[in-house]
Amino acid sequence: MNVVDTSLRDVKIVEPRRFGDERGWFAEFYNQQAFAAAGLPTHFVQDNQSFSRKGVLRGLHYQLGRPQGKLVRVLHGHIWDVVVDLRPESPDFGRWEGFDLMGADLTDTPRMLWVPEGFAHGFLVMSETTEVFYKTTDLYHPQGERCIVWNDARLGIQWPLEGMTPAVSAKDAVGSSFEAADLPGAPVGVSGK
To answer: Which residues are annotated as active site (predicted)?
Structure first.
C-alpha cells in the first residue's frame, strides 16, 4: 500500500497494491495491520454507497458532535472530490483541495482518499454515472449534520463545471456560508470568520 501526502495536512491518497494479469486484477482495500502501520485509522463503523448521474454535486457535508472521518473510493465512474479544512487550530484552516477519483480499470492504480474528522467533504460527478463507496469512523448523526454551500464565495472552490449546471439537493442548496458555519471542535459561538 502506498500512502501519499496532499497539500492539506492529514488528508491522504491511499493506493492499495494491485495484483493483475490479462484476466483482471485483485486489490486489498482495507487491512487493519497495513492501515495501522501507515498511521491511518483502523476503526470504521459504517459503510455508505451512492449512485449519481453526471452533474450531481453533493456537499459540502460535515457533522458536529460526532465527526466522521471518511475513506472514499469510486467503484465506477469519475468524481472531482473536494475537502475543506474546518479545524480552527489548523494552519490549513479554510483551505480546500480537489482530487480526481475514478474507478480503476485493467491498467489503473486504485486510489482512495482519506478525509479526517474536521473536514467538509463534497464531490461533483464528471462521468455519465458514478458509484462512490466510503467507510466512516463514526455513525451518521442527523442532529449534528451541517452543510456549507458548494459555491461559497469565501472558499472560492474552482469546480470543473465545464458548462454544466450542477444538480444540487434542496438541502445542500441552502447550506451555510463558510463565514456563518458552525465549526467542528470550535468553542461555542465561534464560526468560520
So the answer is: 61 (proton acceptor), 134 (proton donor)
